[in-house]
């Protein structure tokens, strides 16, 4: 079974495929009807008006309608375009089991638990016939696909076939009066609309389903007696042909397959079974773990089935429809049904080469999956899934083509087989084969398929990677991590390869160096390389292209899926699902254009722009995105888009032309901003004049030092009675007298007096003082006033100086199309990138000569001025209209943004790691997690670490003195490319590498004999480990290993320190020294412990025990001479007198572990309890006490185990 789509939902009771679109309706036990797109895997719509389960649903063949029937006794007809129920048909008195539209007439047939079948006219919305006769629930009723028959199945153990031809006659308009009369009689005295043609009896229990064969006079039925029965009928009678047994529970639904000679049934025994309709035997069984099956549906056109079960539904195929094919030169070899065929691309001629299956053999999923061809020996390898994977080798002479006799092939077992050179092929071996095996190669990865990868090489595929393997040298040539690859397509020159998975395409070089990846939502079906190195591929419903840089686009939409075999120029050769070869003509202009841009073949680009019909938003957007707005400009007629593109490419001239055509304030303003950026003062001035933006205009004249025009602006402001404008212009001009005059005119006499006094206009100041009288403002004593004078402009006059540049490839190429031949020659010589001649041009803006010419309609002057420009009366604008209106008050109200979720909360929600919770400041949950995972109950040693985690995963910013400090969360593994909306886990101060360093420091202290400091270091490591986070599973194992190492040292050092405290008990001293040697220590430390124990025992005259330590010491091959010498001396002494004066609780022959609290041996076979965190062992009496080794966990507590990596949670 090839599952194409699966849903999870309530129990599915009814299913119906749309005849044309990739849609399926599923009616649920919960009363909801779902409309799914099974190709995209999305839920399109839900219809929820039935009260109770909906058991039947069916799409109309041509109208946008579907019908549903439910346990609320209602039949509803819906329009899925309008998303609503059009009307309800009432009449049934119990649950409705099935509903179905007639293929021609406006009828619906429904079956119900009220023991009747009703036929309705959905156009007149009436019931036109009630079929009675069953004496139990009617479980299903279906129209015959061609004839005027209805089949019904009932729990009364019968299947009935009804003749409804009289119903058809009754509903047809009568042609003559005689017919009309007989019809009136029928209506008055009651006539029979539908008669029972046959009653099929044979089932021992209630029948759940019956359906017609699409073309043959056959019926298939399934019942609660667990049997599927096959019936045949003729004009007069119907009889049982055979019974199919195999289901273990009630058969829910059964039907004939439209395309193949098979029967499909499903059952409450959680299985779908496939039966051979001719041999009447079981072919295949598909089972589900927990879900009973209830309903089946078959697609009217395509080879698709659907089944509904307890927790959803599946859409599936029974076998692959992709023909196996291989292209060699001008010939395509492919399989079609049971034949191997060839097709010549040049002559478009089809030839049958040979049959590879016997006729009449039903073979589900037995057809070849891959085909490999060797042109030298004219040999074919066909691989299929027969017997769990096998291949057949055919060697054919050219003259035996098309004879039609079945040849004996050489067969063998193997997952896949491909030719790797002229006369050798590689087989992915599963067991031995009959052909001559030359040599075997072990593959570098767990391979489940091999593909050709050039002479002598194979491409090996595993779940998550592909590898190119050289069979001769047995080396890996390249490796690439990929999703699961289904097909491999090499370019003609074998330099590039396309790896096709279900939803992605990976383009790589011949050494598997990754170039680009494309993701598709709809399944990828096939692909081929064209002559330009563009990869052309198909999905279920499109032909698309992929450029070498990963850009892709649609070439053509498809009605049915196709498999591309070859791309030649504008022709795509392909196979369809019926194995027919087709040639499709495409328009390659778009991708050739993009390819030329990518490869910087600007001459081709120019040619295509001139000669082809390239246009559309997509091309413009592409050019804009790739940094060619100047090229995009030549495709566009719309002035607004032209304006935007011109601004983007800095083409001021075009922008001015477009702005003039559009003539809107906003466009002039944007033009002014861009012109100002380029320093094109003339255009800035023109733009400000068009928008009547006098303030900006005045400031522009100030910065360019154009005092003459500034004085004109002053006059304009005077005429407009704009006092502020007047004052600003006077200030810009440095005209003090004018400023004093303006202040005087608006009755600001004190300001006028101060201005005049400071700037030394004493005559004016005296006159103003006289006017002010006693109110003369006093000037500050002893201060030197600074004069308000305008600064000198850095650069007077016109535009900024511009660089002289080389003429670009596209500049002017479109304007002077009439240059003809010379132009062509220039581009011929333009070695891919640039023209040869260096045309030096001046990039100038609008000439900023006499502005009066530009200003024309906006000029103002005094009437008595002899120049006659600046005519006041032409400016017919009131002051309100000059300035842009303020924004609408409603829209300018500030809306407070809604607060998001605090980062600490996100960390807690996303993680089950105690360290992340502590970093978020949620110590309580961190402690709960540690208690659950490691049985930790004493958190006092961890307190400071919790605080370090919290403060270390945040940064603190002081905004300003009165505001609180802002804390910012620091994320682990943050990169600049990370999305701002996705929060990563917290950055933690404790790293695994730090623990490694501490471990080394502990080792050094132990070697130096500083046991107290060493113990402190090791305990600190044990306390830090629960709050360390690592990334990979390998590191998790290393952390667990570290706990064991450190635990051994802590226990050993604790015993050694305890021994040193004991003065009066030599036997106990010897025991502790002996136990220390049984801790799992590094070899140098073990030697020191053994030497120590040996010395203690020798001093206490326990020579036999000392002999054991000396022997063990020598076995470690000590590097220090003194240790070897001492050990040998002890052995020599002990051998003379092998006795112990004191008896110790120590038996080195019997394996033991040491109790971490009482420091006594627990020999093998004795009961013990362990610490859930550090795994130290204890005598049973210590259960429930705090572990003395790690000082954190409770001995004998249940715990789930250390969790220190996100990879453990995935």
From TrEMBL:
GO biological process, one term: intracellular protein transport
Example of a GO MF term: structural molecule activity
Domain COPA/B TPR: 604-763
Record-level GO cellular component terms: COPI vesicle coat; Golgi membrane
WD repeats, residue ranges: 5-46, 47-88, 89-130, 131-172, 200-241, 244-285
Cited InterPro entries: Beta-prop_COPA/B_2nd, Coatomer_alpha_WD-assoc_reg, Coatomer_asu, Coatomer_asu_C, Coatomer_complex_subunit, TPR_COPA_B, WD40/YVTN_repeat-like_dom_sf, WD40_PAC1
Protein name: Coatomer subunit alpha
Organism: Arachis hypogaea (Peanut)
